[in-house]
Amino acid sequence: MDERNKVILDTVRDMLSRGDLQQAVTTVGDLHAADSAEVLSRLASEDEVEILVSLDVAFAARVLFEMEEPHQVEVAARLRTGELHELLERMPVDEAVDLLGDVPVAMRARLLKLFGREDAVELQELLAYEDDTAGGLMTTDYFAVSQDATAEETIEQLRGVSPEIETIYYVYVASQEGLLEGVLSLRELIISPPDRRVGDLVSRGVISVQPRQDQEEVAEVISKYDLLAVPVVDDKNKMLGIVTVDDVMDVFGDEAEEDIMRFAGATGLEEESRGGLFAGLGRRLPWFIAAVIVEVLVAGGLLKLYSPLFAKSLVLVFFIPLLVTMGGNIAVQSSTIMGRWLSAGTPLKRATLGAVTGEVAWGVMVGLFTGGVVAAIAFAFHQPASVGITVGLTLALTVIAAALVGCAFPVTLKAMHRDPGAISGPLLGTTMDVLSLAIYLAIGTLLIRI
Q1: Residue 215 is part of which domain span?
Q2: Is residue 62 domain-shared with residue 100, that is, in the same domain?
Q3: What is the mean pLDDT of residues 221-231?
Q4: Nearest Cα to 241, choosing from 122, 347, 359?
Q5: 91-101: per-residue pLDDT in tens?
Q6: Quick check: 270 pLDDT over 50?
Q7: SS3 for 291?
Q8: pTM confidence score
């Protein structure tokens, strides 16, 4: 919370302590909806609800959907059914559906009964889609005309419906059966002669998505074609709704968080809370069990096998943490870069040739430089030349190997038609621990006589 909102929050609390509810409502109502949501969320639960229901209904609806999702659901649960219904009616359809999907089933059923038959059916149809699909993101508030309408007629219709529709980026042309036939930007509509038919102005090759398409794919389509909105159509090309650019902005953040949590071998907070402690343990534990087994059996076996080497030159032990840490860090960086590149739709061959070459070249430079630095440090502490060369050469080769391994994991998954971002951090780290130790011990055996 910024300083301005902190001051406003203290002011509102002071007003409430003096029993001046109306002034508190006025103060919150004069803010931007996002700021009002932030201030209200820091108040006591009863004060938050009392101010929210005292605000202008349309503004209160905007404040409610500006709240963070978990808190939004908490507030909705504290409202009376009638109060919540009134707010839902004034929220954008897609936002109302999201909130309805999060409230308890019994409350949802009561709320749907308060909507008109047509609205209730529409909401139930949208609730049937998964949250992370185009259908779950889309809104049914869009503007469509027939291709026989003139530019002047279309503009007049727009003036009449604009207060009811959240965002109007494009004019869609649809048949009487609702089949999508074309799209027209508002700019093209405005600069066209008033008597020009819309059918003569539209672009026929409309980019669209399917309702069951994953939200990340939808976001990629909007980003790739620089769209402000993309229509959602069924198998018969019947228009169902649109996904707007502001909806996919949230998707990019959600997907990034999901990738980070998955890479760490963990899950998001939402999954943890839904599945409970033991469900979360079941999702995380296998990665760590596998890592422990590999570290003990393989890495431990290597250390035991080469114990005479450490007996001959004990100083080599002190460099092991440095080598395994550098290897793991470089592998994570390379894997993240390659995984995000491939997840963004870059063709496999192009990504493999471009990114692998770049990452390995970078690894060579970093490896040689850091290896030289470590070798110099070893010499400075009067260690034998063989020790300095062993550590320096190992670090150089480890960094190069880490860049290769980090690129190889997501490339392999992509070739198997799996999500290239689905690399587990513990698995990658364990792989590099074993590999860096193997390189270290092999070079030490060659350069230091046991």
Answers
A1: 144-244
A2: yes
A3: 89
A4: 122
A5: 888 888 989 98
A6: no
A7: helix
A8: 0.59
